[in-house]
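In this section we walk through a basic example: taking a raw amino acid sequence and producing a predicted 3D structure, encoded as discrete structure tokens. The instruction is simple. Fold the sequence below.
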Amino acid sequence: MANRSYLYSADSLPTESENPQRVLCISEHRWDIPLAHLLLAGREPRVVQSMIWDPRIGIGADYAGGVELLLDLLRVVGEGLPDPDFAPRAAQIAAHLERQKARYFVLETGEMISLDGGDVEEAAQHLVDVEIPEAVARAQAAIAGEAEEWLETVRGSWRDNFDSHYAKVLYFSFPTE
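The resulting token sequence is shown next.
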């Protein structure tokens, strides 16, 4: 295993019998499910069939809402961050999300949630029920100017939170034709 979380976009969600016809690669992140992946999957998240593994451990979510949430947080993070690398990286992320636009995000976390040896379907549901909503609530509070301490923590580790590998081809990619 590569021990990554993977994020894709598609115009339909995977089912037990088939993957969406067109799956676009968004991002992969090593050894973690970064804040960016949680936020991008933060609007109307639900457990769906994985496109990579047999269990129902994929997470489907609204694409437009997730992008809006992440871009709003990136704006707020950038307002208080003197690092000259942040603004160009945020612009690259925004451009990639625009190019790979679809109706849904599909977050694949199987490699990460299987590391502890527990029930992966329960772990996926926990992401949808607890971890993603908590990340969204914190981001919304920061955007509203109500979570400065959390926002400073995010700024201090912005690379861990946002600087994933955004590309049209990931370790697990799907045919585009």
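Looking at the output, two observations stand out. Residues 4-166 form one domain. The beta strands are 4-10, 23-30, 46-48, 58-62, 104-108, 165-166. In the next section we compare this with other chains.
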